[in-house]
Design brief:
alpha+beta, six-stranded antiparallel beta sheet, nine-stranded mixed beta sheet, 417 residues
């Protein structure tokens, strides 16, 4: 049973939304945020990347930076750049990329569902990153940015969303940088609110698609507040955190590719020969070659593209992890041949999100920065859910979701005032 509730969102007036909204905090660095915010004092970067209000080089983890986030959040509300809705409601958030639209329901999920495993994860979290987001939630007493969930397809919710999608949205804009369309509706009708709550209650599980650290931080802060409140009832706002929930079949997962600085002392020919032990290797020439199916990889080396097809017996179709292409490539290429064990810490490897395309892999190798590139077929949402259901954790750098959620469309405050 997934517990969700409506909430009184804090959000920009319609005429200000394009000045307030921005990319999420973790997809750009401080310099990029400073450049994108420019002279726009209404940009949410002043709350989610407040180091931009300090001299260049100021650490984003400086205590003054967290305090500035809270001060700026207060300022935004006082100036009327962010205004709280008077009624608890749900919201619908649509994103359109390359002609395909996915619709998400913006809800408040229950912290206990996360802590008890009813909200399932597929990635490990790092304590330092959790603590950073916990500080941000604590100092603002709010979930400034949502997390990104998936839920099993539901025809009742699909019908409700389709009905709203035929009406005029509250927000409708094409974002700079990504060029994708973003639309937003308020669901204030009591009957529709009941329907959403009831349909989620029928779901045994929600799945974290993106935002593992934000999910952990929100749940842990909620648990802290429970312990700190001697009169805790269980219905306080801090028991919930904000999530945008999409039907699993609508989500787009792009390939997450690898570029490597060296061949571990091997010549190109020796490397190809080592690959032939576990892969069928075919030279595809100089034109960019993209993997067409599971267990097929693309290698770019010395100006040529190669297809690598994993041989039978190199993976286990009954193991939700062992069947993954990211696991196959990590074990049989990066680890066994190139001696790259820890993908999280190795300085010999970098990762390129699929939105940049395979031309970016070619560019980085041709420039001499990298020695070779490896392109993977994308992980499916079903694979992610199977892994989460099994209680296992995906290898690092396995999924790249697009489009990213824009921040600043709605905020959830952890108190009733």
């Amino acid at each position: 049973m997934a517990i969700v509730k409506p909430f009184k969102g804090i959000r920009p007036p319609k005429e200000l939304v394009e000045q307030v909204e921005c990319r999420p905090y973790d997809v750009l660095d401080s310099d990029e945020a400073r450049a994108e915010a420019g002279n726009n004092e209404k940009s949410l970067y002043h709350i989610i990347k407040p180091e931009i209000d300090f001299p260049v080089g100021t650490s984003e983890y400086d205590p003054r930076v967290y305090e500035k986030a809270a001060a700026n959040f207060k300022k935004f509300k006082e100036q009327g750049w962010l205004v709280q809705d008077q009624k608890e409601q749900y919201y619908i958030y649509a994103q359109t990329m390359n002609g395909k639209t996915q619709y998400g329901l913006v809800v408040c999920a229950h912290t206990d569902d996360y802590l008890k495993g009813n909200i399932k994860k597929h990635e490990l979290t790092r304590r330092d990153k959790e603590e950073d987001r916990m500080k941000h939630v604590r100092v603002n007493n709010a979930n400034i940015e949502p997390v990104f969930f998936a839920y099993p397809d539901n025809p009742v919710l699909d019908s409700l969303i389709t009905r709203y999608a035929q009406t005029e949205p509250e927000y409708d804009f094409v974002a700079p940088i990504d060029g994708f369309r973003h639309q937003f509706w308020c669901v204030a009708d009591d009957a529709d609110i009941r329907t959403i709550t009831q349909e989620f209650a029928k779901m045994p599980t929600l799945y974290i698609a993106d935002g593992h650290h934000r999910s952990a931080a929100a749940a842990l802060v909620g648990a802290e507040k429970q312990k700190q409140n001697p009169h805790h009832r269980g219905d306080e706002e801090y028991n919930y955190f904000m999530a945008v929930c999409f039907q699993a079949s609508q989500l787009t997962i792009l390939d997450y590719n690898r570029v490597v600085k060296d061949l571990n002392g091997l010549t190109s020919q020796q490397f190809i020969e080592a690959l032939e032990k576990n892969f069928v290797v075919a030279d595809k020439g100089e034109a960019i070659y993209k993997p067409a199916r599971l267990h097929e990889f693309s290698l770019y080396l010395d100006g040529h593209w190669y297809s690598l097809t994993a041989k039978p017996g190199t993976y286990d179709n009954t193991d939700p992890i062992g069947v993954l292409d990211v696991d196959i490539s990590s074990r049989l290429i990066l680890q066994d041949i190139l001696n790259i064990g820890d993908l999280r810490s190795s300085q010999r490897i970098d990762f390129v999100g699929g939105l940049r395309g395979l031309a970016e892999l070619k560019r980085r190798v041709d420039s001499g920065e990298m020695r070779m590139a490896l392109a993977l077929y994308p992980v499916s949402m079903q694979q992610i859910m199977d892994i989460a259901d099994s209680g296992k954790i995906m290898p690092p750098k396995a999924t790249w979701f697009e489009p990213k959620l824009r921040s600043g469309l709605v905020i959830h405050q952890l108190s009733d005032d």
